[in-house]
Amino acid sequence: MTSESIDIINAFALLTNFVLLPALSYGSQLALGALAVTLVYSVLRFSNFAQADSMAFGTMIVILLSSFMIGKGWTISGIPTALLAVPIAIVGTSIYLLSMDRLVYQHYRKIKAKSITIVMASIGVMFITGGIVRFILSAKAQKFADGERFIFSVREFKTYTGLEQGIALKTSQFLTITIALILVAFVFYFLQKTRTGKAMRAFSDNKELALLSGINPDKVVQITWLLVAVLTTIAGTLYGLDKGFAPQQYHLLLLPIFASVIVGGIGSPVGAIAGAFLISFSEVLLTYAYKKFLIYLLPLSMHPSSLVQLIGTEYKYAISFVILVVVLLIKPTGLFRGKVIVDD
Amino acid sequence: MINFNNIWQQYKTIISFSIMGGILLFVGFNQSWTLTLGIINLSLISAIMALGVNIQWGYAGLFNVGIMGFAALGGVSVVLISQQPVAEAIDAGGLKMFFALIMGAVTIASGVMLNRRGVNKWLISSIVVVGYIVTRYYFSEASGLIEKVNPGLEGYMGGLGLPIMLSWLVGGIAAAGAAWWIGKITLSLRSDYLAIVTLGISEIILYVIKNEDWFVRGVKNVAGLPRPVPLEVNMKKSEWLQDLVVWFNKADLQLLSESERASQLIELMKPASVIFVKLCYSGLFLAILVALIVLSNLALNSPWGRKVRAIRDNEVAASAMGKNIERQHLQIFVIGSAIVGIAGALLVTYDGILIPTAYQPLRYTFLIWVMVIVGGSGNNLGSVLGAFIIWFMWIQSGPIGMWAVEMIGNNVQAGGSFIEFIESRVHYLRLFFMGTIMLLIMRFSPGGILPEKNKEL
């Protein structure tokens, strides 16, 4: 091979390692959170501001359980212990979300409150949840990933291919992408094929008609919260395995999650996933410093001297906001034409 | 048999404000007057903020989750208006920064204009991209130059050196401008979009303030802001205050000998000067609060106010009568945000320092919401009362919580590590308790303590 074509391969290896893989895994994490928001929105008809903090709550249970399990030596080598703790954590999160529904949201459904009132209540829940998480785990950042860090590391990749630039596949990235795929497939199968899923969709399309055809609204609501608990706990755990756990960082995920949901079309599950990847790729592509990438591709005379970074990393939250605003200006229904429920 | 319920219904405003006043007097006599005045001053500022939010929520049902951002805009204007300009920094990078900002504005404006004219999308995008690159080039050069000028103390261009009172007005205008822009985008859409967008914009305003050091020094804070009231140090020497203190403590001072009396007087002047300065602030804030309440009540009883209430009570009917709901909502959103901006400016003026890291959503957005809901949404006096109650609880909950933990700790000998654990985190429980209070009030007494009076239209 000529050195030029190797340079091109190197450049794309670089891009895969620093853009493609991080954006794919971040996008999968956002997609799960966005799917949960969209489910709550379609069935319970409000924007759940407590979503990001619920993710922190689920992750908190995982962290507590996994540290207990590591203490007892109940681990499987190679797999992060956190994953083994997820099923129990899902039960815990389900109980929490269902009791919040019983204590807070049920009342507003019964009196047919305006959606904005329920949104306000969800902000109350958000602060309560955030308070509980910070009280138990403190506001400090911590890492809870154990086991093998890489599926294959940069060095292994380099010796195997002989390239100058390596690609590393982190265990957390691999797990995130595969688990997200399985989970999304499961949710879609559930919504499309099963009886309960169909009932949920019918309920979300037309509440009165669904009630007339004998669908039990309480059951639909419960199933929704159970699904949300599964998505929330797994999304939170995967994000934490990838980037570490810090309550404030989780809290700030709310904006990209909402942006994903609205960009894709609020109430549309496919839209939520598409929106999540749009947001994650924009964030990573715009904050990546292209200097090295361009050095591989451009002749020596044109090598850049600056970092060639379009937007500073500190403004990555602004990116999802700008996308959100642009979509609201151009196409408020979102890419996949979600439903726009008007207040009764 | 006196019916207490009737009396409460009739005089609840007076009763609840008297109880609050009584509690504050109690704190004044038992803890300290400086603490009481501190609570009162911050309650007054919070009351102004709550008033702005109450206008948005109570008059139009607009849910603003970005109070923090609007307050921060007010705070920044204080620095930009009242600080002295830093000539060296302006010489170094002022012109370039000006050019960069103009360039950015032109880029955005031309993008919007061309888009409206229906010009080819690719042409527009390339113009915007080129404009962005040029802007960014000059911008990073200029900000680097400015930040290099005496970074320990300055490293920014300073302000305009104008009187600080002007900045309150400017703070209101800045917040109103941001609100107008947000309102234009979201008010024609679903009601929760406003909530989401305000949440986003407030975080981003804070990111900009924290990261752009050339602007208002970022996380390095701007201290030593000018003050609208005299300094404590000068007050210590003022003769009339000294006379006043002597008159207040006549009985105590007469018992002492001449030399002891002088030293005792110096001791007494310390808290007296602090109290005097705080009272000055209280007077200022109270005047602004009363003026705003009077203005908003006048407005609500005017034809404009009748339209506002008509739209709030029945949007469909009002719309059928030819009222423009969207424009009405935009007006109210802008007015409410302007008031929040003014309060934000007052807060920074009172602190005398701009600390960007102190802007937390809990303190600035959520707490204000709890005030509005507890006090009585839709009722201006209610939100003032809510501000006093919630701020008082906020300030006192820390010490009370610590005291409770220590009491438990003293009685329970075993499990010392558990007590330590609780002690180090007791302040996070505030989040929990404030959230619980908000949810309880929303659930069981949606009108708050002083519900809005139902007036005949």
What does this structure look like?
- The complex is a heterodimer of chains A (344) and B (457).
- By secondary structure, chain A is mostly helical.
- Chain A has one domain.
- Chain A has 14 helices and two strands.
- Chain A is globular, with a radius of gyration of 22 Å.
- Chain B folds into two domains: 32-85 and 158-444, Orthogonal Bundle (ABC transporter involved in vitamin B12 uptake, BtuC); 86-157.
- Chain B is built from 19 helices and no strands.
- Chain B has helices at 4-30, 33-60, 67-82, 87-117, 121-148, 164-186, 191-211, 213-216, 232-237, 239-248, 250-254, 258-301, 303-313, 315-320, 325-351, 361-375, 380-411, 416-425, 429-444.
- In chain B, helix 2 (33-60) crosses helix 17 and helix 12 crosses helix 13.
- Chain B is globular.
- Chain B starts with a helix and ends in a 13-residue tail after the last helix.
- The mean pLDDT of chain B is 85.
- Chains A and B meet through helix 3, helix 4, helix 11 and helix 14 of A and helix 7, helix 16 and helix 19 of B.
Query: Termini of chain A, distance in Å?
Result: 67 Å
The amount of helix of chain B comes to: over 70%
Q: Count of helical segments of chain B?
A: 19
Count of DSSP-assigned helices of chain A? 14
Indicate the CATH class of the largest domain in chain B.
Answer: Mainly Alpha
Q: In the residues of chain B, how many domains can be counted?
A: 2
State the shape of chain B.
globular
